[in-house]
Amino acid sequence: MPVDWYNGGMEHTTLHLLYSRFIYKFLWDIGEVPKDLGPEPYKKRTSHGMILGEGGEKMSKSKGNVINPDEVVKQYGADALRVYEMFMGPFDQAIAWDTKSLGGSKKFLERVWRLKLKMTTASCHPEPAGEGSQKNETLRLTPQGDGCASMEKLLHKTIKKVSEDIEAMKFNTAISALMILVNEMEKEKEIAGDIMEKFLLILAPFAPHLAEELWQGLGHSESIFLEKWPKYDINLINDEKINLIIQINGKARGGLEVVRDMAEQEAVGLVKKDQKISKWLANKEIKKTIFVKNKLINFVI
Question: CA nearest 11: which of 94, 111, 115?
Fold first, then answer.
């Protein structure tokens, strides 16, 4: 105690809160709960919305509008059902079932499956390898795009979006971002292996069976769920550039164009590589570095 996260259905909120929260708070008030546990039984509480029948009414056997998940899985597949349930609307809202939309989720997964025809062992960031190695393959991409550069930029934006949306339980918008990425991937002649791998990692929570199958198709022997969650590169997702003023002992000596919100260590590294500015630091001891994000760097020498 306290529990990290309590999630319950909206139709059970009253009784669930009675025994899980208010009884706990009563015990807290009379001193039966250790003070170090705090007055709340859980750190976070959410209530998921109810899935209604196709007519917008609550499902019941008497109305004959109950959706049998076993039949849905048999016709559309477990992943399609999983994706549809998370894509149909906000997590905490009641939403009516729509079989046509379920078909749309299945078609999305079929498009993902067809991407395997474009998968290649080539990499956008090939490692040094011996002659004839697969890692030295030339990656062919459609001429109308920027190739790996444009795909990487969108991929990392998607990683950021999906990561944040999962934490915020905005599963529908996370899946929407994945769909946008797939639209662009379909335009490519070939998809680099490292691009496909990261895409599958962020798809896996929503379509685990499909992601696992395609993961194995890339030559992996261990489960995709043993892999670490991918991290996004801030430099790839930030399109906006700013002019960073460079000062030496408080006097402006130039400027450097960098991406917005660049970290101090990276910005200082770029300054030291810039010939026009680095000459002011040559053979000088830097006693202090003052960094104001998106504004300036002042070297005290």
Answer: 94
Which domains, from first to last, does the chain contain?
1-48 (no CATH), 71-124+141-237 (1.10.730.10), 238-300 (3.10.20.590)
Counting Cβ atoms within 10 Å, is residue 205 exposed (0-12), middle (13-18) or buried (19+)?
middle
* 153 Cβ contact list (under 8 Å, min separation 6): 236, 237, 239
Q: Helix count (H) and strand count (E) of the chain?
A: 12, 8
Cα–Cα distance, 41 to 181 (Å, whole number): 40
Omega before residue 208 within 30° of 0, cis: no
Closest CA to 258 of 237, 272, 244, 239: 244
Q: Tokens in use for 63?
A: 């109305």
pTM (2 d.p.):
0.71
Contact between 120 and 135 under an 8 Å Cβ cutoff? The reply is no
Task: Calculate Rg over the CA atoms of the chain.
Answer: 26
Tens of pLDDT, residue by residue over 26-68, are 999 999 999 889 899 988 888 888 899 888 889 988 888 899 9
**Residue 105 near residue 87 (C-beta atoms within 8 A):** yes
Residues 6+ apart with CB under 8 A from 177: 158, 161, 162, 165
